[in-house]
Glucokinase
Amino acid sequence: MHTDLVAALDIGGTKIAGALVDRQGRILVRAQRPTPAREDGETVMRAVDAVLDELTASPLWQRAGAVGIGSAGPVDATAGTVSPVNVPGWRDYPLVSRVRTAAGGLPVELIGDGVAIAAAEHWQGAARGHDNALCMVVSTGVGGGLVLGGRLHPGPTGNAGHIGHISVDLDGDLCPCGSRGCVERIASGPNIARRALDNGWRPGPDGDTSAAAVAAAARAGDPVAVASFERAARALAAGIAATATLVEIDIAVIGGGVGKAGEVLFAPLRQALTEYATLSFVHRLAVTPAQMGTDAGLVGAAAAALARSADAAVAAV
């Protein structure tokens, strides 16, 4: 049987999604379960098993040659384990071996969710055609992944490109990760909203205090809301410029809920980049919204599995 498909899993704190994906990145079969994130580890794994059961029941499963997993992190691809911050029942959980067993022994490739989104945007989305890119998710947290020299660069453990925990304010607020002034502590959705509230912004009659509500207020000209997004944009610009200076990326792609804020984020971000990305070789750095949407994690996990299969085929020759 020709193995021209891969299985993909996208594991987060809200949902566990699965798919069978072809070599053009098309999703042919889907399955999904809510993540029982507050439950014990085995209960979470049962939800993963339920997704895999649905995929393996498809007649197309016989054509799957590998499984790709994009998981909330930290992940450890070397050990095959995951410890998602928002799934406390999984700490050093042996996800790769459990999925390999459930998938009938197929090879399994594990990467962090930020790396998966970078893989998707490079393969099918806003970073297509760029050999050196940083792709970011700016949402409840801030994550990312790198493409260097035309290839995904997950690093030894699958976490490379985790820009959310670059410090951009040496004396800044303590971040839950233990460092200070991290990009995530300034630019994530909850922190944009927290800063706006602390500085006197008040929600409308609906009581919505999300970053999306702050973005709407910023578009309407509320100065406190505008200032909170400008602060987030400066933090993102500093992190992006540092990354570009280090590894010479030429495009930064921004997705996630905060990335959907539009020009209230991107206008001050582009302006701040002119102040931080000052060396000649980073002047042409482009910043653009992500294109892949909610399927990015699945498509990126599939891309990682396909890349592994291609590497294995080359090694066998």
About this structure: The chain has two domains: 5-112, 126-291. The domain at 126-291 is CATH 3.30.420.40 (Nucleotidyltransferase; domain 5). The two ends are 20 Å apart (CA to CA).
